[in-house]
Each structure stands twice: as C-alpha cells, then as structure tokens.
Amino acid sequence: MNHPSLHCCLVTLSILVAFSLLISITLESRRLLLSATQIFSGPPINVNTQVQVASRSENVFSTLSQPTLAVVIPLNSYGLSDLRNALSFFGSPSVRQVLLLCPESISLEVEHSLRDLILSEKSSHHAVYSIIPRRNSDSLVAAVFESLSSSNSDWILVTDERGLEDIDPTSQELLLHPTSLVYPKGPRGIRLSSTEFLCLSPSSSIQTASYLVPPFVMPTNVVRGLGGNPQTWQEFGEIVSKCMFGEFGGLVFPLHDSDTRENQDWCNLNDSGARSSHISNISSNEILVEDIGRDQPVLSERLTNVFITIFSTLEELRLFAPVICSLQSNGTKVHNLLDTRSGLSYDRMRTGSCVLEFKSLMSVDIHSGFDPNSTVLITLAEMDHRIHGATNIHISRKDLPYCSWMASLTEAEWRDWHRPRLTISVITKDRPSSLARLLSSISSGLFFGDSIDMRIHLEQSADYETTQVVKRFSWRHGSLFVHHRIIHGGLLPAVVESWYPHTNDSYGLLLEDDVELSPLFYPWIKMSLLRYRYGESIGKYPNLFGISLYQQKSIELHPDGRRSFNASHIFLENDIPKFSPYFSQIPCSWGAVYFPEHWSEFHDYLAIRFSEITFKLDNIVVPDVRSNRWTKSWKKFFIELVFLRAYVMLYPNFPDYISLSTNHLEVGSHVKLRTKAKQEAFSVPLMQLPVNGKQILQILDLPGGTLPVAPPVLNLTGFLSTIDALTAVGASRRTEMLKCDMDVRSSPPFDARTLLCLS
Ligand SMILES: *[C@@H]1O[C@H](CO)[C@@H](O)[C@H](O)[C@H]1NC(C)=O
Ligand SMILES: *[C@@H]1O[C@H](CO)[C@@H](O)[C@H](O)[C@H]1NC(C)=O
Ligand SMILES: *[C@@H]1O[C@H](CO)[C@@H](O)[C@H](O)[C@H]1NC(C)=O
Ligand SMILES: *[C@@H]1O[C@H](CO)[C@@H](O)[C@H](O)[C@H]1NC(C)=O
Ligand SMILES: *[C@@H]1O[C@H](CO)[C@@H](O)[C@H](O)[C@H]1NC(C)=O
Ligand SMILES: *[C@@H]1O[C@H](CO)[C@@H](O)[C@H](O)[C@H]1NC(C)=O
Ligand SMILES: *[C@@H]1O[C@H](CO)[C@@H](O)[C@H](O)[C@H]1NC(C)=O
User: Fold this and answer.
1) What SUPFAM superfamilies does this protein map onto (predicted)?
2) What mean pLDDT is predicted for residues 107-127?
3) Which residue has the higher pLDDT, 18 or 232?
4) pLDDT tens, 477-496?
5) Is the distance from the beta carbon of residue 283 to the nearest atom of ligand 1 less than 6 Å?
6) Pocket test for ligand 3, best of 300, 367, 373, 374 (most atoms within 8 A of CB)
7) Ligand 4 center–CA 330 separation, angstroms
8) Rg (CA), the chain
C-alpha cells in the first residue's frame, strides 16, 4: 500500500500559526497547555473565518455565526434497518447536510427508506440529505474524504452506521457542537507505539491519540487542506500528525464529571458481543482488536505471491493465525477477509507479537486486482469461495485447530498444494478386526479438504467377515474401489500390484491390514511431499523414493539378526540434531508412501528379475543383508533396487518413537508367531491430536520447526553415510555383478533396463 503523500497546504499552516499564537497551544506531543474546558466548552467558532479573526482580534472564542455541520454516515448492507435510529441524532438546526455513503447495490433501497422516513416523520430535520453510492471495492475512508467535496458546511462529523447511538451524552454534545480546535476530535481513539496498542475512551483529561475512529468531528477546510490520500483512519491520523506538527492524529474528549465512563465495547473484542454476538465467544485475552473504518481499501497489489484467507468468524481466523503469522513474519502479504453477516467488521487482531489485519469480504473484490497465477486463497470447505485460476485451498472447519504444521510451508510449496495426489491402497485377507481398526484410523485422519482416492484389495481367500467390513466401509474424501482376486496371489503381487502411478504426481500409500495410522498421518505426508518434491526442491532429491510414517525401532537387515535401533544415538555422536528426520535406504512396509518414478522402475526391475534374463533369481545382489534369506518378499527386491541406485526413504524421528503409523504384528503371511518380545520390538506410539489445547508432541516439533534441507543419510544396516557414498557403493556392485561398461551415473534415471545393463 502506498504511503499517503503529504502536502499540507498553506491555509492549514496559517490557521495553525494563528491558533498557536492566540491560544498558546504548544503543538507538541502531549503537551497541551489548555485545559479541557478551554478547548472543548468554549463557544463554537466558524473555522472559515478564523484566519481573519486571528489577525485582528484577541477573542478567538467569540461566536461569529452558527457553525454548520455536515454529517457523513457510511452505511453497509446491513445498516438499513438502523437508518431511522442513526438519523434521529441529527435533527439539530446546525446540521445542514447528511451524506449517506452507501454501497451501490443498496443505494436505491436507501433512497426509498429515506423518503419514507422523512415523509412519515413530520420531521424537524432541516438538513439536506444526499445519498452517495460507492463501489464496494473502494476504501471507505477514501470515500469519506471524497464526499467532502460535496460539503459546504464548516465542520464535518463522521459517524459509523449507527449514528451516535453508543456515544455518551457529553460526547454527543461535543460532536454536534464542535468548537474551535482544529484537530479531529471525538470519543474514540487508538494510541499506537512500537510496544503499545491502546484504545482510548473519554477519561478525566484530554488524551492525544495516534488516530481517531468514528465518530469524530473536524473542520472541513482543514481536512481539505491536508491533502494526501488516506485509505485508513490510521493513515489519516498519520497525515494529521505530520502536517500539524502535533505528533498525534486527533484528540479524545474528556469525560464530564457526571458521565459514567464509557466502556470500551467498541474496542475490546472481549466484550464486543454487545454489538456483534457471533464474535463474542473468544476468550483469549491476548487478542485485541481495533475498529478502524468499517470497510477497507481495494486490494490491488501485484506481488509475486498474494495470500488471501476467507473465514466466517474471528474464531476461525484466530485458529488459523499461527499459519498467517508465520507467512507474515517472512514478509508475505496476507489479506484476511471475513465473510461476516454482521455489519461490524473489526480491523486488527493481535496474538502475541503478531498483528493480523482483516477486512470485511464485502469491501473487497477478490476476483479482480489479483494475478490469479500468483494468488493462494485459503478458505473453508464449508464456504464457497474460489478465485478462478488461483490456488484455491478449502480446509474443513473441523480441521482448523490442527493447521499449525502449515506454518512451515514456503510460498512455493503453498502454490504447489494441489499437485501431489495420494491414493491409499489397503491390502487385506482374513483379519477382519485388524482391517476394521485400520479403516477406522484412516477415516479419523485429517485431510484438510484434499481429495484422496482409496483402493481396498481383497485376497482370493478373504473371509466373509473381512468382506463385510469392507462392505460396511464408506469413504468421504474421494473415490473408493474394491478389488477382489480370484486366483491366489500371495503377498508379493498383492502389494506390488495394489498401486501403479498414473502421473509423476501420483503417490501410493501402501497399507497392510495390521497397520494403524495416527490421525496426523496425512499432514506428515503432505508436508514432506511439498518439501522434498515440490516448491523450491523440484528435482533436488531424485534419490528419495518414499516417505515412511513408521519410525524404525529395530533393524532387521544385519546379517546376524535383528538389532534394536535408535537414530538419535547416532545423531548425538555426530553433532546432528537428535530428533532430525532422516533418509534411510530401508523400505518401510508398515505405512509408507511410494513415489511414482521409483515405483514404476521397481515394477520393471521385478519383471526383468523374474524373467532371469540378466541373472538367476537366487543370485545375491546386496552382500551381507538378511533380506537375502527372504524368499517371498517384495521388499527383498526393493532393497536390491535401492542398493544399486542409492535410493532413500524419509523417516520421522520424534522422541519416544512417536510415529504416524504402527504395526500390531498380528499373525498373518509374514508373522507366524506373535511373541511379546517381537511385538515390543516393533509397535510404536501414534502421534495424537491435542485435546483442549494441551501441549503434546505435534508434527512441527522438529529441529528448527521445519523439515531439514539436507537430512542425514543412513544405509541399509543403519550406519551414517551420504548419497554420494551410497551411489559409489551401488555403482561398483553393479559393475562387479553385471560386468557392465555403461556407468549407471550417466544412464537415464528410473530406467530398470539400463540399470540392469539391457540396452
Ligand atoms: C475480558 O473478559 C474477561 C471475562 O469476561 C474479563 O475478566 C477481562 O477483564 C476482559 N478483558 C478486557 C481487556 O476487557
Ligand atoms: C464458547 O463456545 C463454546 C462452544 O460453543 C462453549 O463451550 C463456551 O462455553 C463458550 N464460551 C463463552 C465464554 O461463551
Ligand atoms: C497465468 O498463467 C497462464 C498459464 O500459464 C497464462 O496464460 C496467463 O497469461 C497468466 N496470467 C497472468 C495474468 O500472468
Ligand atoms: C522464510 O524466508 C527465508 C529466507 O528467504 C527462507 O529461507 C524460508 O524458507 C522462508 N520460510 C518460509 C516458511 O517461507
Ligand atoms: C516423469 O518423470 C520421468 C522421470 O524423471 C520423466 O522421464 C518423465 O518425462 C516425467 N513425465 C512427465 C509427464 O513429466
Ligand atoms: C534414543 O536415544 C536418545 C539419545 O541417546 C535418547 O535421548 C532417547 O531417550 C532414546 N530413545 C529411546 C526411546 O530410548
Ligand atoms: C553400512 O555402512 C557400514 C559402515 O560404513 C558398513 O559396514 C555396512 O556394510 C554398510 N551396509 C551396507 C548394507 O552396505
């Protein structure tokens, strides 16, 4: 937003000079020498003639003529019913003009109501009424200042859509019978400093404010003379303070002894229920809101990336605030819009050190003024907003409390939000209760409005109960397909054929039925995909073949048997953040996502391997790993591919092995016998949703609060390594085995044929 240019005209200055001489106001910040009574209860004065008066008379306070007043009432679409009420304050003879600023869309209605009103009341109104339509997209404050050009009154009184309804009698009197002082003055002001955001209401003495919010009154010609092009009341205050050397933008009336102190309903969100009940239920007292103009300026920035949020209540905005604050703290412009049915739209919310500004959706045309190509719109799935061509993100209302992980997303990652598409593939046979547990955990997942397709694969030997569990299952987040084999395949084809990518943006989450998921499994996947496959990192991690939800607690690949494993031990010894997520070569089969290029290559690799074209099926590809003894496992072959190619999978590494999936190790194809020791070696706690805001481990509890750019790399037996070192090991094994003279590092990526030296 442009800072308003300041050009104070000479008239203003000369008035000021005259004034400062005559009434000895030291126009320095907060050092008013006049008492409250001198300023505010002197007889009215016609500002138009002040300059002449000042030059020939000592008596500034003498009444030259009855000053005239123009009232500007900005109406909003919901303000109509209150019109009668709002106008009831302006029957005084000094009110010459009433300017009703209203949205174009309702100007006709306003005209009818106004006519009825004036006819029906044998009214004492002396004023001329004008209806000034304005475009919704215009700043209300700018519109107010524009309307001054049609005013020929001495003073201008700006109110809100309710007239002076909530204003105490003394302040009403002072507003309707303004006196000499040239500053904008009224009962409501805001004092801002780097540390302070204070709402000012009348108190025992006059107070200086950084700016005023309506209602306030000011001399018409002074305001005209100020120039500038303020878009908000705050900017107007800044102009006043710069032009008038006061270091303040307005004065707040003192309180008359007999008045009761005005409560700060207009300011504190806390108590704002009096005027706007839907936002009254926010108890957090760290939030303070400010009511500047009702509407705000047109949004016309063409920044590289513009973020727009649209929510329906302040509470929703507050829930999403951590994400917005994170974007803002990185310099990203976020426009927060509230699609509220209340006429009142607050303007500012503070949580901790973060200030969120927001406007009424009515005041903005989101469909123009933005380059959709660089716009990200975040709104609720329950609301029907969308900007054609922009990145439109629709989050379910119930997911809002769990969005904090999004704070780690970069602008580019946000823009790629919709690119990855996940398919969940469930492989099951005859463990109905395991399957039911898995399906229920998937359904409890949070998907943040994303569409997820699901496939359930029933083995030929699936039992009746299992089939019933599948039939009873319904899936709300995307399409659901059920497959049933008629010839027994076994686990290898069941898993390998359960999913095949359609594009380079297709991802498969492969789940056997004894797995159970955390409700947060999807954000872990989404965040990792966006970090390592999209945004700034497109093409940067070609070796990454998948994302594990499960945390390794044991490593099975040591030639001499299973060993317990704790990645933090290794990291601590090597000056790596203890709980850093890491890349490991071990493919996980207990809840993991596989990437399209690597999975397609794996299919080709298996086909070639089973054909025995290059070497015998029982040849050993990876030396000294226990998987060589596994005969029917797809993982054995995946490990070979991973070894030759130096592929890696991302693993979580939260404290206490907290994971996004666990395995219950129930008796099945692989597990013949379930011992307690074996179960303890594999089952891990699942990450849970916070309840009642209680602090528990969440996805962003990562070193630095974000996924690492270069995660540590572990080899198949759990030793620290690097991609380069692994690549060298794999390449040399390939040369040794295949006697192939084409170097794997210069052959096409993801091509199993060239990998296996078949040209
Ligand atoms: C907010 O409301 C609470 C309870 O109603 C009250 O104790 C507190 O003083 C209020 N805070 C402000 C800033 O008004
Ligand atoms: C706010 O709303 C919640 C849920 O609707 C309710 O439980 C709570 O009592 C409300 N709080 C206040 C202060 O009204
Ligand atoms: C937005 O992107 C589309 C497709 O890339 C392009 O045709 C269009 O011109 C772009 N629009 C703007 C305003 O840059
Ligand atoms: C914030 O900005 C820094 C520096 O430009 C960048 O490295 C970082 O990724 C950004 N973070 C987010 C969440 O956008
Ligand atoms: C998918 O990725 C592969 C391997 O990088 C690449 O050869 C292919 O062109 C990509 N396909 C599309 C449609 O981008
Ligand atoms: C893993 O090792 C780290 C570092 O020695 C230790 O702090 C942590 O408690 C260990 N985790 C478990 C579950 O034993
Ligand atoms: C992993 O690295 C360690 C240490 O360099 C090495 O002894 C081990 O053989 C490697 N494992 C595999 C499967 O290559």
Assistant:
1) Nucleotide-diphospho-sugar transferases
2) 73
3) 232
4) 999 999 999 998 888 999 99
5) no
6) 373
7) 6
8) 35
